[in-house]
Design goal:
The structure is a homodimer. Chain A is of the alpha+beta class and about 240 residues long. Chain A has two domains: about 140 residues, Nucleoside Triphosphate Pyrophosphohydrolase; about 60 residues, Winged helix-like DNA-binding domain superfamily/Winged helix DNA-binding domain (Arc Repressor Mutant, subunit A), CATH 1.10.10.10. The first copy, chain A, is about 25% helix and about 25% strand. Chain A has five helices and ten strands. At the A-B interface, strand 1, strand 4, strand 5 and strand 6 of A face strand 1, strand 4, strand 5 and strand 6 of B. Chain B binds a DNA duplex (27 and 27 nucleotides) through helix 5.
DNA sequence: CCAAAAGTGTTGACAATACACCCATGA
DNA sequence: TCATGGGTGTATTGTCAACACTTTTGG
């Protein structure tokens, strides 16, 4: 920041955003992918994204791109959890030119429709289970892997899991988020106690209940609470903490 | 990433790196600041940083700038802990032009000399206690605050604290890092047990000992161990986890 | 009545705290 | 021998994982 600001002293880089939009559906973590229409990587799947406009911040650009690609209502896009992941700046990450990309992670609930049919172009955007998302364009496989690992960690010490749930959810659904992202089974009674013992994690919706699996006792409904941090954390079991 | 790559389709942004170089000295967290020589913010203190060169990644640029500003030996700069913090992209963060900056946090041990006299220009670079670093140029106060909070959190669940220590250190010095960054006192016996009970956090240096405060029993020396994560975490006390 | 899902209770192992105490060194 | 910092021991307290058990629904 102490260099001379000669307009020719710096190389003009293109700056883009890339989005790892994640959701939990049917017991598997899914990511929103777009099929590329042109070279390079024509026909390959890629993360949605695009250029930052001259008067936009990266976050504004990310929300705009998300709205364009998914066709979600603007107020929904405004509300959902969007978080800066990392910036990818390897000189050759795009074969044509110098592109620096600010990557974001977005967490959305399981959207009712296959969604993501950005503008009726039904074959262009798809939810793909993250384990089947291979052969991605550019360095998007790295971005996706970083997003997965970040989300996994954040579930441990933040209240982020509710971002994967609809506005009202059962504790069973919340537990399923943890189990899906971590790939481990959790003890239901203990999970329940832990969540309810954390002030501000969830708030009970008075009197409401929902039949979840068709059978079984109706479950009480909860809303996300005001808390964001999780003290003490909810650590995933049997994961490298032998001591 | 699915837009057309017309060279005129994107606005050419300048891309820079900014560095929050932190150290612990004399019981206070310090940050490395540079006094600006030109407008805007001439005479104000700022975080070190500069433009990314055409064939550099952001991390490479950060290490190069760090070496230039601090005058540290290249192999030291190569080894120290450098971590991407966040990218700052508000359109008006630089009054002259569009500058997107990738911020990094660097953790260094208390350097023997006042250091940071980049090229003998003794008044240009200085270690400043973070609490006295006010009136910074651009949005650097925000970057510094983000770096502080990130480092504070990372001490809880990673082995990062050793990055603030010299290659060999005592447990008292390690504890001082925690106490300085968190601003809280820790119980020495319990801290000691916690650290030693975490496999790979530190390794004893056989037979070595050092007089720390001049007086008192010589303390055993330790090296950073191979572990990076801290399971279970070392939570700061009395900090919002009443339940 | 059975299966399935929600929710409660209880117990034992283990971890964290608080604090008393001992050790080695310099002045 | 006293102050200072390093290091050990221990009792109490709390937390968490495991699992048995009850409740409420649909078939």
């Amino acid at each position: 920041m102490n260099a001379v600001y000669d307009p020719h002293a710096f190389a003009p880089f293109a700056v883009t955003v890339d989005l790892a939009v994640l959701t939990v559906r049917g017991g598997a973590l899914h990511v929103l992918l777009i099929r590329r229409g042109q070279e390079p990587y024509a026909g390959a799947w890629a993360l949605p994204g695009g250029f930052i406009l001259p008067r936009e911040s990266a976050e504004t650009a990310a929300r705009r791109e998300l709205a364009e690609e998914t066709g979600l209502a603007p107020e929904l896009v405004e509300a959902l959890h969007l978080e800066q992941l990392r910036t990818y700046s390897e000189p050759d990450r795009d074969p044509r030119m110098r592109v620096v990309s600010v990557a974001f992670t977005a967490l959305v609930p399981d959207l009712p429709e296959p969604a993501a049919t950005g503008g009726g172009d039904a074959d262009r955007a798809r939810w793909v289970p993250v384990d089947e998302a291979v052969g991605l364009a550019f360095d998007h496989a790295v971005i996706l892997a970083d997003a997965r690992s970040r989300v996994g960690s954040k579930l441990e010490y933040t209240c982020l899991a509710t971002a994967f749930c609809p506005p009202e959810f059962t504790l069973g659904e919340l537990q399923a988020v943890y189990e899906t992202v971590w790939g481990t089974a959790l003890d239901r009674p203990n999970f329940r106690r832990k969540v309810l013992a954390t002030p501000g994690f969830v708030e009970a919706v008075p009197g409401a209940a929902r039949l979840t699996g068709g059978r079984g006792k109706p479950a009480a409904l909860y809303r996300p609470g005001p808390a964001t941090a999780l003290h003490p954390p909810l650590l995933r079991p049997t994961e490298g903490h032998q001591r």
